[in-house]
Design a protein that fits this description.
By secondary structure, this protein is α/β, with parallel strands linked by helices. The protein has 2 domains: about 210 residues, Rossmann fold (3-Layer(aba) Sandwich), CATH 3.40.50.2300; about 130 residues, 3-Layer(aba) Sandwich (Rossmann fold). It is built from 12 helices and 16 strands.
């Protein structure tokens, strides 16, 4: 009799635990919250969280719990975090903040079709056009997406480009190298005359620049690294056109760089000075909640969250979530439409922005 009573209470406890799990949706969020890439990670996280705050972290009768993990931009740590999510049955994962770390997580989720990795920032074309458990709202490094860049090269007679990159995010910078060089050649230019990793040091890079002939410098690195390098370039009286990647296109870049970064250009799908009503409303809500201004990165995090929320309202079965996302296909973003293809990659209109008087303005 005692054994039957004990078994009865054990069953009650197990049932209670299962009911608690059934009434809670756990979402993993992994990014580099410490280290030199932390600024970007915090921005996308804050934008993402704002959307869930607006629904009080609840969808229908289920509470939402966001489980945050710091990959420290370390592949070994990113791998352990992915394994943690798998072990704890956290099947919807948002991350990572760089393509290199995203690649680590995606490898751990291989053949786990009931899991979904949704990336806000990974743009490497290593992930493109694959029928897997991955979606993203960041445009991939595909030359077809950058027609305005080609027109800019032709109009401004850009033929020779010196390429400087962060090799710690090689999945991203490698793809950027390939698609950018292809656009340059298609517009009548040449292969990159030189390429240098930013970790070679400013002195070595400056010496190489001084001994090279080029029309443009392309820097693909974080906002702080890009701003610091440009300061050294300008101090050495190198005044060629400088183009930065969207990775560096943050408010922090402008604050770090000061007046010396005036005139740089960026190819971007976001206009920080946009007057689109949805974007302005988002900025106002963000500032009211966080007591600071939002940049394009917060906007990207928010857009991903809205897409996730919309589809979680239809199903909490994560194995069905990707199909729901791509079948909907077109979503209204804060600045224009976000259009998914059948693989979970997206198209978004891109344009050239130029920094003038401390603000990026769209180039006609």
């Amino acid at each position: 009799m005692r054994k039957l009573i004990l078994l009865y209470f054990v069953l009650i406890m197990l049932t209670s635990c299962n009911n608690t799990t059934d009434h809670k949706i756990k979402i993993g969020f992994v990014a580099g919250f410490t280290g030199k890439y932390s600024t970007t990670s915090i921005k996308i996280r804050d934008g993402f969280m704002l959307a869930f705050n607006e629904i009080n972290y609840k969808i229908h009768d289920k509470k939402i719990k966001i489980v945050q993990k710091d990959d420290k931009q370390d592949p070994a740590i990113a791998k352990k975090i992915a394994q943690y999510f798998i072990k704890n049955n956290i099947k919807l994962i948002i991350g990572n903040a760089t393509s290199s770390m995203t690649n680590v997580t995606l490898n751990e989720l291989k053949n786990k079709n009931d899991f979904l990795l949704a990336s806000i920032l990974a743009s490497s074309n290593d992930f493109s056009n694959k029928d897997d458990n991955f979606v993203r709202t960041q445009v991939d490094d595909n030359s077809k997406q950058y027609t305005r860049l080609k027109s800019y090269f032709i109009k401004n007679n850009i033929k020779k480009v010196f390429y400087i990159y962060d090799n710690n995010n090689f999945n991203y910078t490698k793809g950027y190298f390939n698609f950018f060089q292809n656009i340059l050649i298609d517009s009548g230019g040449e292969k990159f005359i030189n390429s240098k990793p930013i970790h070679d040091g400013y002195k070595n890079i400056i010496n190489k620049l001084k001994n090279s002939t080029f029309d443009m410098i392309l820097i693909v690195a974080s906002s702080s690294d890009t701003a610091n390098l440009i300061q050294h370039i300008k101090l050495n009286q190198i005044n060629n056109q400088i183009m930065i990647s969207e990775w560096a296109n943050t408010n922090d870049f402008i604050e770090f760089g000061g007046k010396v970064i005036e005139g740089v250009i960026v190819n971007s799908g976001y206009n920080q000075e946009s007057q689109d009503s949805k974007y302005l409303e988002f900025k106002n809500r963000f500032k009211k909640f966080y007591k600071r201004e939002a940049s394009t990165y917060e906007a990207k995090g928010y857009e991903m969250a809205k897409i996730i929320i919309k589809n979680l309202k239809k199903t909490t079965d994560i194995s069905k979530l990707k199909n729901l996302i791509i079948n909907e296909k077109t979503y209204e973003g804060l600045q224009g439409k976000i259009i998914f293809n059948k693989y979970g990659d997206v198209y978004k209109e891109y344009f050239i922005m130029k920094l003038e008087n401390g603000k990026f303005k769209r180039v006609p």
